[in-house]
Known about the structure:
The chain has 522 residues and is of the alpha+beta class. The protein is 39% helix and 14% strand. It has helices at residues 7-15, 20-24, 30-43, 47-50, 55-62, 78-84, 92-106, 113-127, 186-200, 229-237, 254-269, 279-295, 305-313, 410-420, 422-433, 442-449, 457-468, 477-485, 488-491, 514-518, and strands at 140-145, 150-153, 160-170, 175-181, 206-208, 216-218, 226-227, 241-242, 329-335, 341-344, 347-350, 359-364, 368-373, 376-382, 392-393.
Amino acid sequence: MVRKIKAKLVLRLRAEGLSLRQIEAHGVSQHSVIKVERAAAREDLTWAIAAEMSDGEVYERLFPDTGARESVYVQPDWTVVHKELARVGVTLKLLHAEYLDRCQNSGAAGMGYDRFCKNYAHFVRTLGVSSRVGHKAGQTIEVDWSGPTMQLINPVTGETAKVYLFVACLPFSRYAFVEPALDMRQDTWLEAHVSMFAWFGGSTPRIVPDNLKTGVLKHPREGEVVLNDAYRELAAHYSAAVIPGRPRKPKDKPSVENTVWSTATWVIAALRNRQFATLAELRAAIYEQMAAFNREPFQKRQGSRLSVFEAEEQPRLRPLPVVAYEISRWSYGRRVGRDGHVVWEKNHYSVPYMHVGNVVDLRVTSSMLEVFLGGDRLSSHLLAPIGAVNEYRTHDSDLPDGPRYQQWDPGRVRGWAARIGEHTTTVIDLVFESVPIAEQGLNPALAVLRLTQRYSNARVERACEIALASRVRSPRYAHLRPILESRQDELGSRSPRFAPSAENTPPAGYVRGADYYGGAGK
Length: 522
């Protein structure tokens, strides 16, 4: 490349009376000054005339065709090359191969790949546009949390709450999105992504976040990246893959890093004199500012973020799923109980009976609970309402036939009691009669019947008979267990606590009457 002499500068300095040595201090050699003076004398060009001309025009008049060389290679249409590079999968290597094919068919000379790339780079610098080598339209979304924050102010109490800003950017068009949030927890992170996809009106194959724990659990130097399950699930719902940037390498996502600082001006600084009481009010103001930010013309390229997005990138975004994404939580290592149910927040949900005793994982949304074993879903249930306790959600298909797995109710309890004996049935009936709601008697009635798991049916039946003969109106587990533990049912003895009625009690002794002590015979 020929280095051009600053001809116009030389003419101005000479007109001001500077010497060759003084002009040399301005970065122009004495040899170049002499060359300019000779050319100016030849072309009869004075400073008075050159002052109205541009630097390029002065140089072209003094040194016409200097350094101008016509290339022997066919020049491609660089505007078409630049446009084609925006398409997914198109590279300079592919375009150069197609260019060589056209040159070969026409019999013209084609430039090599290295010169092809350098000429494209020169075209990009000349037009002041962004190179398409690093970014493809509709391929990537970069996301991050903004360092600078905002705040909400309670108009009544004056209390303030910190507001964090979620920032997203499409690197190709630099089209940006900002979402305010009251915290940076996992659910908030996922909700911000849902709002982001709605703002863009589509999704991309790649999501590039930072290595925050709400998204990435482990990013080793070697081996696979371990993602948070909920974040991975969200990405899969939108047909995307999460490819986090390397730790402590912000240049892996430069577009969103630059957007973070742009939002500091367009959002935080622009709204610094306004007070917001609610998050919805602040969100509306931020969306308005971001719409203006995306409409702002570029400084070094034609158009704006919005115009490039609508013309070139939005048509290449993947369509959003028909079913809206529902945020979920995962709970790991839950064991299936012997009754074929797994417990979540004090409520019970059935699992297929063959998995009793297995350790399963639960996926919980705002309305559903799903049970997984590895990657297989075993069952799903509507989530019990908030505040519900000890509620059972059971699918008949999860449980096998047989009374052991049937739902407990008064009829089933009485049937068990009838198989033990008449007195046991009477005790169970008295239990249910003593409570206002039948379900309240299930637990005490089952406690009585489960005594047969430790003692024989005959002993429990005899204990019930003894308890019924006492003054206790409704015998329960607390009355029957002492009888069985002390073996009163086997010895035939009576506990003072359960003394029989007076008419069945034999006389404890004999008392002599008055006739014996002072009787008539004495």
